[in-house]
Every structure is written in structure tokens, then in C-alpha cells.
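Lab notebook page, bench 4
Experiment: in silico fold of construct C2
Operator: M.H.
Input chain length: 462 residues
Purpose: comparison with the prior construct
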Amino acid sequence: MARMSIERRLLITTVCLFLVIGSVLVVMVRAYATRAADEAFDRVLTASVLAIADTVGIEEGAVAVDIPYSAFAILGTSRLNRVFYRVTGPDGALVSGAPTLGLDIPAPQDASLQIHDADYRGDPVRIASVQRYRVDTVTGTGGWIGVMVAETREARQELAAQLTFNGMLPAVAIALLSGGLILVSVRSAFSPLRLIESDLRARRPSDLSRIDREVPTEVSALVAALNEFMERLGSVLDGVKRVTADAAHQLRTPLAAIQAQAEVGLEEAQDPSARRRFSRIHHNARDASLLANLLLSDATTMHRLETQEREVVDLRDAIHAALRMLRAESAYARLIQSLDLVVEEEPVPVVAEPVVLKEMVRNLVENAFIHAPGPTDVDLSVKDGKAILRVMDRGPGIPDAAKGKIFQRFARVDARHPGTGLGLAIAKDVAVAFGGSISVADREGGGLIVQVVLPVTRGEGD
């Protein structure tokens, strides 16, 4: 399951909080809008029922009502509403209007105005009712005359929806603006961590220097802990490198002596069994000597990569220097004679550390000599601003399944064959440190091609 970032958690929490607040706000604004719409339309409704109530009377025992035009003209301002009315006499008999309107509403006991919500013919309506006491001028008898006026709620709902929309529009705009500001603030708050991440990713694998970037107080404790950890790790690695380099250096002389003694023993021994033992001693001493040399080369390479400044180096000079080193070793005297070297006529400048670059070339050629004792070709060319160094042999090659592992330290394709599994690993570290890459491919006709690509510089200032 993918882990969720703190930034995303904060944003999701903020969105959820906005949704909760927005939902509560919608409910409150809707309730306020409905109440405001009811108050506005109730004023018109009460004015209409009072206008009708003022015209009712009793004449010669009969209820008379003269409904004024203005009573319904006021309610008719909205085309959405439908209006109903009902007038009843003192005995409750219908005088005029809708006979079933407001039958479920209790009749008022006095002259006070009452407003109710009800249903009429399946539609929700708002009803205003009032009673007026009238006396017959002829007979002198009197009674309460009831007046009801109702209207449907379409116009009220439309006004409530409009008020809700107008009320929520600024709130939504403020929420969007606040959300944008919160998003910018969260990203800005985490930007120091991104800068630290990019700084660490851009470093060379061996760079354990302190993080000197200015960071906020909240992040300073993390940076201080990282710096302290890298200092401790650097001290441990330095100690390991020193021990490795010292051990390798101290082992080279006795291993060379053992190898020489084994060679003498091979020449002098007559017994086949003794010759096999001397041969095995010689083989193991040679492998141990090679491992010691590579360990010393690895320690030297890593140390110089960390401490020495880069400079513009002619890659051709590094190749020639590496071949001179191999030519001085008796084990490769015959193989170096069969090496075919093809380089550019013009200088091939690259930004590198001279000694480390020479060690990389030496390891590549030595790796070819060890695994493919036969004709070896070294080719240097320039293409598209890249220096391409290829070391090609006619050895057994490497299976496709093992090509992805050969750049790992101490990785060997076949333990029965000589080698340490360090040469290509060191070469890869150097190539990557100088901004380049390394790869292997099968050679046509058999063998292996190891290719190093380095960027070519145009001058000292590049």
C-alpha cells in the first residue's frame, strides 16, 4: 500500500474541513433564506387577508363580502403562485371561495391574525386567517366572520433558492481563495525539505559533507541530526577505508614473494603432485595479489574522488598512462604486446581527476586481460560531445542474465574463473562520479565490449 505524504494528508484534512463547514453553512444559509422569503411573502399575504376582512359585513341576516381587486392584485405579482380564499359566516357556512380550504386549521377564537402551513389539493400552501365580528344593522344580531387567504409556495422557494445562491457565492469564492492560499502555504512550508532532498540526490555517492542550506527552525533539528549522522558514517567509512588500504598495502609484498616462490618451485619441482601444489599456490597468490591491488585501487579512488578537485584532463593521456602501468607488470607483458590501441588525433578533454581516471582505464584493460587472455582492442572516439571509450576482448563473454549484476561489488559470473568482481564496480563508480555512464555489450564474433561514455568539455571554464 502506497504511503501518503504529510502534504497530501494536510490538504485532504483541509478539504474535509471545508466540506463540513460548507455543509453547515449551506444548511444555515438555506434556513435563513427560507425564513426571509416567508417573512417577505407573509407581509403581502396578511395585507391581502386584512383587505378582504375589512370589507365583510352582515346585512339583513346575510353575510356580505366585497372582495377588493387590490387584495389579489398584490398576491398576483408572482406568476408562479396560485391564490385561494375562503369566507365563512358566523354559523361556519361557506360564504365565498374554496369550500375545502383550511378545514384542517383550527378556527381563531379572536380577531388576531394567524398564519399556518398546510396542504391544499396536494400542494403545500401558506394560509393567513383572521376573524371579524360584525353586527347586522337591521336586526341588531352579530357574529364572527372568518376569512382565509392561501397561496402556493413556488415563489417563496424560488426566492429562498436565489437568496441561498447569493449568500453562498461569496462563501464559495472565499473558500476557493483560502484553499489556494493554504495549498501555496503547505507547499511553501515543505519546500525546505524538497531542497534538502534535491541536494542529497545531486551528491555523489561518496559525498557525506554537511548540509549547509538555510532551513526554518522546525526543520533545523532534522538537518542537525542528518549532519551528525553523516559525520559519524563518514568517520566509520574513513576508518574502514584506511584499514582496507593499509591491509592491502601490507599484503602486496608478502603475496608477491609467495607468488615468486611458487614460480621458482614450479621450475624446480619434478614430482607432478608437487607441481600441482605449487601451481595452486601460485594461482591463489596471484588472485590474492590482484584482490589486494584492487582494494588499494578502490580506497585510493574513493579518497581522491572525495578530496581532490576536478580538472580538465586529456583522456588520451590517461589511457597511455594506464597502459604504461600495465606494461610495467610482468604478468601482462605478453598481453600488452597484443593490445591494439586506436585514439583520436585531437585532444579529448574531460573534467575528471587524473589519477582516478587513469585507475578506471587500468581496471577496464586489466579486467579484459584477466578474463580474456588474448587480443584486446582499446578504442577512443568522440561523438555528439561525448567521449566514448571502448575496451573489447575476445573472451567467453557474459550471459544476458548476468549483465545486470556485473557492476555490483564482488559479483562474479563464474567463480571458477580468475577475478575479484571489483574492477567493473570501481569503473562504474568513477564514470558516474565524472558525469558519465558505463555499459557492456556482446562483441560480434565473440567476446565483450565495455563502453564508458564521458562528457567532453571545451575548455577550462566549462
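Observations: Residues 310-462 form a domain with the Heat Shock Protein 90 fold (CATH 3.30.565.10). The chain has a mean pLDDT of 81.
Next step: discuss at group meeting.
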